[in-house]
Design brief:
globular, 285 residues
């Protein structure tokens, strides 16, 4: 049987990550063909993009960066958490050592997560295209006046949002910025897109969940000099009055190696304290 080809992506700016990767390198090379070790945000060689598995060392932000770097390849990602929350990158170093052989043998399943593609194509100043694993956000920016965004899908108007911005997210990203602005939590296996306004200037504007089968068109009717379009909280571009942003479901989903001992709602409970009683774990008075 051919040895599996493995790519390691890391966050070299996070303390201890490079040292941990180098310490594990001989152990990994005993078990597979190690194609490369590279920063998660850098462009990869064609050979590295032919990996059977990508192991990501860092945290959730590093995994999001890796997801964009490998967008369209279908290479499954295994996230090893050396950060804080570890919601997406939910393997510890010890769990990685315990389960890598099973992953290489194909004994652990992968979960498919919907990704987005966002583009600004009609602006002479801000030509932009990017995949997105979590979300696409529009932030008002300086001088911090309210901005006006027209949102349409399939030629029909969804809403005219007046406020501080907008968050368009995947189910995976529903527990990120979307949740912080009052959007719903979606199970990551769903095929849906959430549109959540940021500080809307009307009580009638609420988050909405729409089908991903048709592209979402956002017209920047009125924006500020500092208004920005931000992808996964990591890459961004400016916007001008009249710019059109198109958000659509990507053709190829993100694939993440499933943790064998942790389901989605287990992670919600353990990482975000979801659904717990105020007295859970404490003494009732």
């Amino acid at each position: 049987m051919d040895r599996q080809r493995v790519l390691i992506l890391k966050n070299p700016r996070k303390p201890g990550v490079s040292e941990q990767v180098e310490a594990l390198r001989p152990w990994v090379e005993e078990r597979c063909e190690l194609l490369a070790i590279a920063p998660a945000h850098e462009r990869l060689s064609p050979a590295a993009r032919k990996a059977d598995l990508c192991v990501v060392f860092g945290g959730d932000g590093t995994l999001l960066s890796a997801a964009r770097t490998l967008a369209g390849t279908g290479i499954p990602l295994l996230g090893v958490n050396l950060g804080k929350l570890g919601f997406l990158a939910d393997f510890t170093v010890e769990e990685f050592r315990t389960h890598l052989d099973a992953v290489l043998a194909g004994d652990l399943p992968t979960a498919e997560r919907m990704m987005l593609e966002v583009s600004v194509t009609d602006c002479p100043r801000h030509h932009f295209h990017s995949p997105a694993a979590n979300d696409v956000a529009i932030s008002a920016g300086a001088p911090f006046r309210m901005i006006d965004l027209l949102v349409e899908q399939d030629g029909s108007q969804i809403a005219q949002y007046l406020g501080d911005g907008l968050v368009v997210c995947t189910p995976t990203g529903s527990t990120g910025y979307n949740m912080s602005v009052g959007g719903p939590i979606l199970h990551p296996a769903l095929q849906a897109i959430t549109i959540a306004p940021v500080a809307p200037h009307t009580l009638s504007m609420r988050p909405i969940v729409v089908t991903p089968d048709r592209a979402i068109r956002i017209t920047a009717s009125r924006v500020n000099e500092g208004t920005a379009l931000i992808v996964d909280g990591q890459v961004f571009t400016g916007l001008c009055d009249g710019d059109t942003i198109t958000v659509r479901r990507a053709d190829t989903p993100l694939r993440i190696v499933s943790h064998p001992n942790r389901a989605f709602f287990d992670t919600l409970t353990s990482k975000l304290q979801w659904g717990r009683s105020p007295h859970h774990g404490g003494n009732r008075q």
